[in-house]
Amino acid sequence: MGQTGRNTHLRACARRWHCRRGLVLRGSFALLSMFTLAGCVDSFVSAQAPQAPALEPSNIARRPGVSPSGTTVAVASFRGGPDALRARFMSDFAAAARDQQIIMATPDAADYLVRGYLSATSEGDQTAVTYVIDIFDAKKERTQRIEDEVLVKGAAPDPWSVVDDNALAAVAAKSAAGLAAVLTNTPQAISAASQNGNANPNAQTEPPDPTVVAASPGAGPPGIPGLLH
Fold first, then answer.
1. Contact criterion met (CB below 8 Å) for 135 and 46
2. I want to staple 198 with a disulfide (CB 3.0 to 4.6 A). Which of 5, 65, 100, 139 is the partner?
3. Angstrom distances, CA of residue 210 to CA of 26, 45, 92, 160
4. Which segments of the chain have a pLDDT < 70?
């Protein structure tokens, strides 16, 4: 091969080498771009992921054939209303819980924890006593919220002054019944009933209707209207 032929051959080899190098570089750049874009998409999706919605009140019907005694619960706190009134309510609630076959335990041994809230507001010629009960599992994660009210006949600038012992007993009974209904739908209570051959996993009843009780305004301690957190 002459000098001219060798020069031509070398130039051809150089062109092929540059061509292959260009293809490799373009392929590497495309691969890098793909991973970079994928990372951006993952970051965007993570950034845009919506948070879990707040738990809405859910008044669960009592499950027939299942007793709340199949699980245990502890009342961590009840807030709202004057101290003396709340103390009377807690006594009524404990009695109502026993009537509902709710088994109380210490917070460190209970399957579920309860935090409750009371409020009183005037509604025309009536006073609404509202209760909210948050139920937490053993991991302290809220599983249910139940909420309802008892309407008391009569109104006053201080709504709590209208709430007498009859009204407190009605609120305690209704809130304890609501808690018992939730507990009958827990895995522990259903499992206990199944072992006794009493559970019907698919059967439920309708939640109770709002309660109206008569109460006469009386002189009581200064109230704390509104829901306390």
1. no
2. 65
3. 72, 45, 19, 19
4. 1-59, 198-229
Residue 144 near residue 60, CB atoms below 8 Å: yes
- Residue 201: which residues within 8 A CB-CB, separation 6 or more? 63, 190, 194
The span from the CA of 160 to the CA of 59, in Å, is 25
CA distance 66 to 194: 8
Q: Which position has the token pair 């054939």? A: 65
- The three-state secondary structure class of 34 is helix
- What pLDDT was estimated at residue 106? 94
Report the top-level CATH class of 68-214.
alpha beta
Q: What is the pLDDT of residue 15?
A: 53
pLDDT of residue 101: 96
Supply the pLDDT for residue 75: 95
Domain boundaries, the chain: 1-44, 68-214
Q: What is the CB neighbour count within 10 angstroms for residue 178? A: 23
User: CB within 8 A of 199, min separation 6: which ones?
Assistant: 63, 65, 66, 190, 193
Q: Show the tokens assigned to 6.
A: 């060798």
pLDDT at position 5, please?
Answer: 52
Q: Which two tokens stand for residue 67?
A: 């007793």
| pTM value surpassing 0.90 | no
pLDDT of residue 2: 53
